[in-house]
Structure formats: C-alpha cells, structure tokens
Specification:
340 residues; alpha/beta; Rossmann fold; 40% helix; binds UDP-4-deoxy-4-formamido-beta-L-arabinopyranose
Length: 340
C-alpha cells in the first residue's frame, strides 16, 4: 500500500481527497497546522472511510520540522500539497503572510522531494492564474496574466518554482491541477466546507443565508457583459475534484505522464452565473433566497470556465456531478452543521 503525504489534509479539498485516497487503498499521512481546520475533520474522514489516516500536526513554515518529517517517513511515495492560505481579499491586506506561508512551505517540501531518487508531487493550483482569460472555455495554453491578488500570484510563482525544479530534477515528477470553483460537500455530510467568519465565497454564503445565519446575499454586480449581467464561473463538486487528485497521482505512480511537469484544468466545462447558482439553490432547497444587488467586487473576473479536453482525454478524468447535485450536497452539509 503506497504511503501518500497530504499537506493541508484537514482542509476542505484536502479532507475529501484523503477520503478518496483511502477508498483506493492508499495509506495516508496528513500534515496540518490546524490554522484553518479542526480535529473533527479527522473524525469525519475516519467515519466515512473506516480508516484513520496518520496525522502529524506540523508547521510547514518550520524548515527543520519538514526535514525531520521526511527523515521519519522515508517511504512516502507521493505528496499532494494543499497547505496554503487561500482568501483572495485577505491576501491583498497581508501579502507577506501569503508569500511566506504559500511559498516557503512549498520550497521546503520540494527540497526534500528533490533529494529523493524518485518523487511524485501534485500541486493545488487555481484557474486564478489565468486572470480574465481572453477566450472561453479556458485551455491550459491560455496566457498567464498578471495576478489580480497576492494569493493568485503565489499560485503563479508556485507553478514556476515547480517547473524550474523539474527542469533540473528529472527524478521529480509533478502535476499542477488548476481548480475552477470547488463547491459542495461529501454526500454523507460528515465533511464539508467550514469557512471561518463571514464566507468570502458564493456558495457557503448562499447556504448560510438559507440557514438563517446571514440576512441576505449581496450579488456583487449585475451589470457585467454576460447574459444575465452577473459573473460566470465553473462550479465543480469537491468530490469530483478530489477524485481528480487520485487520478493524477496514479498517473505519476504508473509513470504514464509524458513530461515531468504537467498542468491540467479541473472543472466541469460548464459556466454558471451567480443568478443561476441562486436559482439552483432555490430549486434544490425549495426555499426562496433573500438577496440584493450590490456593487461589483474589485478583482472579480467576468467569466471563467474550463476547457476540460486535456483532463478528459489525457488524464482520463471528468466531472460527474451537476451544479444542482453539488449545491444540494452543500445545503445538506449546512443543515447538518447547524442542526437544522
Ligand atoms: C464567485 C462569484 C463573486 C460572494 C475565488 C478564488 C479562487 C478560489 C475560489 C481558492 C463571483 C460572486 C461571491 C458573494 C457574490 N479560491 N459572489 N456574492 O472569486 O470566483 O474564486 O474562490 O482557491 O482561487 O479566486 O469565487 O465564490 O468568491 O465568487 O456575488 O457574497 O460569486 O462576485 O462572481 P471566485 P467566489
């Protein structure tokens, strides 16, 4: 049973990926500093998969702690690296915290992998690297535009760091998965998204409004050049996204990669507007959502949805869940954690 390290494995996408890894027979070691998650998530993972991953509470910004970890676990066959700060707005206010946390940690993990005779690395990247792409749907060859936020810049720089390292370390095999918009929760409602404070993202804000925690959703602008005036995104079920990580890892473990650095867009290929997401919530919850139109949010792109051809044909993965199914899973989770 190959042993896989998942950094940030108690986070939203990380926890769902650990569940999928364990269901495929991998032995999982989680590193998490619990800055944006809790030990309840470990219980949820164990409850779903009937297996408890090894857990190491560790600060990846501590280089010697990372070195000690890899000395202790010499049999790690692959690493899926989620650990990072990910709030776009916060990154504008705290750029140094974002550059330190998102880049130093990546560098320390890569330094350990580069020293191994063989290493397999999956990087949590983001469609944010494209900025406002010129053409829809977005392919992996789309231009990398100047980042709109320090958060987005850490993803762009992170990819460059990996690419440059792979050029001189043929033993290091890496895949960057560029996520579109992850939403939803595990169908068991044992794990899901746990935003701290006021949710920055659309879907958790919708479900919290539906649950009565928020008075109303503010729709950030309805005067965009889109069919209904609201921004368009590619909302992908977090379980579909988690499965993409396992497929990518297996690609590297079975040496099916055609280069030692590859990138894949991971989305559904379907663009949905903010109003369409609101209406989907109203359909699946049978509740009217209270919302108001507000000013545009600085930094928002008008439209972003994936061309999934490369992931479908080369990676051999495609998203299975519809927007309705993803929103319903998010709503089930919200009701569960609020005791509704
Ligand atoms: C989606 C749409 C908002 C909240 C960001 C990051 C991306 C990834 C996902 C980390 C936009 C609108 C939102 C609200 C609204 N993060 N909206 N009212 O900005 O596409 O992507 O989160 O990995 O990297 O860039 O997602 O959910 O914040 O916004 O109208 O209260 O919903 O304007 O059009 P986004 P989002």
């Amino acid at each position: 049973m190959d042993k896989i390290l998942v950094t940030g494995g108690l986070g939203f996408i990380g926890s769902h990926t650990v569940v999928e890894l364990q269901s495929e027979g991998f032995e999982v070691v989680i590193i998490d500093n619990l800055s944006n998650s809790s030990m309840d998530v470990l219980e949820g993972i164990t409850a779903i998969s009937g297996k408890s991953p090894i857990f190491e509470k560790l600060e990846l910004k501590d280089k010697s702690a990372v070195q000690n970890f890899f000395s202790k676990y010499k049999d790690i066959k692959g690493v899926i690296h989620f650990a990072a700060s990910k709030a776009v707005g916060e990154s504008v206010q705290e750029p140094l915290m974002y550059y330190e946390n998102n880049l130093n940690t990546l560098i320390y993990v890569l330094q350990e992998l580069a020293a191994k005779t063989e290493a397999n690395f999956i990087f949590s990247s983001s469609c944010t690297v494209y900025g406002q792409a010129d053409e829809m749907p977005i392919t992996e060859n789309a231009a990398i535009k100047p980042a709109e936020s320090p958060y987005g810049n850490t993803k762009q720089i992170g990819e460059e760091i990996i690419k440059d390292t792979c050029k001189v370390k043929p033993n290091l095999n890496a895949i960057a998965l560029r996520y579109f918009n992850p939403i939803g929760a595990h169908p068991t409602a044992r794990i899901g998204e746990l935003p701290i404070g006021v949710p920055q993202n659309l879907v958790p804000f919708i479900t919290q409004t539906g649950a009565g925690l928020r008075d109303a959703l503010s729709v950030f602008g309805d005067d965009y050049p889109t069919p209904d005036g609201t921004c368009i995104r590619d909302y992908i079920h977090v379980v579909d996204l988690a499965k993409a990580h396992v497929v990518a890892l297996k690609r590297l473990l079975s040496k099916k990669n055609i280069a030692n650095y590859e990138t894949f867009n991971i989305g559904t290929g379907v663009g949905s507007s903010v109003l369409e997401v609101i209406h989907a919530f109203e359909r699946v919850s049978d509740k009217k959502l209270n919302y108001q139109i507000a000013d545009r949010r600085i930094g928002d792109v008008i439209s972003a949805y994936a061309d999934t051809t490369k992931a479908n044909t080369e990676l051999g993965w495609e998203a299975k869940s519809s927007l309705n199914e993803a929103i319903l899973s998010a709503w089930k989770w919200e009701k569960k954690i609020r005791g509704l």
